[in-house]
Amino acid sequence: MFIQSFKLLAFTLSAILLTGCASSDLKDDLFGPGKNSPTLMPRTSTYTDLISLPEPKGKIVASIYSFTDQTGQYRGAPNSSFSTMVTQGATAMLNTALRDSGWFIPLEREGLQNLLTERKIIRATMKQQGQDANQLAALLPANVLLEGGIIAYETNTRTGGAGLKYLGIGTSEKYRVDQITINLRAVDVRSGQILHSINVTKTILSNEVQAGIYKYVAYKELLETEAGYTTNEPVQLSLMSAIEAAVIHLITEGITTNSWALKNTDEIESEVVKQYLNKTSPVVL
């Protein structure tokens, strides 16, 4: 009996130490010195493609009033049932992607009322100082209006996994795939004609790995231990990647239809342009 108790104690201590070491390593990896400090938002491969585009003949002045969530998807949360599936900051993401591309001059339109209020304050100040308020430069008009939004968010488009258990000792792995779809349209401001319309779909992967022991090591003596981890691809990064891809497709499609032009026409053969011209719409990333 003493030998069995000693074996149980040794086995239990080993399991606790292993679990504790794994937990400690995980905490150090996530919350160690310098690990939890603010950083710039991570970017995906589409950002590399975006900033690698060849130069335009002339930049396109574009305005975006809103790039909204049109999915109508809500998810339950512990304290609220009105938490949306996607970020509501897609307009800001699109403005960032347009500026980073080097092809567009995005204009502030989402906060237009705030901008107009500040301009009124400037005019009032200039009048008080005896200056001509008409010297204030006019706002820049747009050549192209960009419209669209997040048009779909589908959950559990694919699920699956595998596992193995023998004598109370087992491991398993599960995965789930969601997908988000956006639409980006370029509209001619003068005619109202839709010049280009792009649909991009981005998959979002979630993965879970678990291992555990549930075993009677002696009469009425049960050993239970478990460990695991879950990785979920951030939705906002997936949305940013889809927006960047949509901007690239918009640019490359516009080049082929002469809506805008390259500074050096030979760069139509560049790797980035050829790569995105060969993809069909809707695009799946």
Your description of this structure?
- This protein is an alpha/beta fold and 285 residues long.
- The chain folds into two domains: 1-33; 42-106 and 143-284, 3-Layer(aba) Sandwich (Rossmann fold), CATH 3.40.50.10610.
- The protein is built from six helices and ten strands; from the N terminus they run H-H-E-E-E-E-H-E-H-E-E-E-E-H-H-E.
- The protein has helices at residues 2-31, 45-51, 90-101, 112-128, 235-256, 271-277; strands at 60-63, 68-69, 74-75, 83-84, 104-107, 144-166, 169-188, 194-218, 221-232, 283-284.
- The strands form two sheets. Strands 1, 2, 5, 6, 7, 8, 9 and 10 form an eight-stranded mixed beta sheet that branches.
- Helix 2 runs parallel beside helix 5 (235-256) and helix 3 (90-101) crosses helix 5.
- It is elongated and about 95 Å long.
- The model is unreliable at 1-13 (pLDDT under 50).
Instruction: Compute the number of strand runs.
Output: 10
Supply the CATH architecture of the largest domain.
Answer: 3-Layer(aba) Sandwich
- What is the approximate shape? elongated
* Low-pLDDT residue spans: 1-13
Number of domains: 2
Head-to-tail CA distance between termini: 61 Å
CATH H level, superfamily name of the largest domain: ABC-type transport auxiliary lipoprotein component
Number of helices: 6
Largest sheet: 8 strands, mixed
Output the structural class.
alpha/beta
Taken in chain order, the helices and strands follow as: HHEEEEHEHEEEEHHE
* β-strand amount: 25-35%
**Helix content range of the residues, please?**
25-40%
What radius of gyration results from the CA coordinates?
Answer: 27 Å
Here the CATH topology of the largest domain equals: Rossmann fold
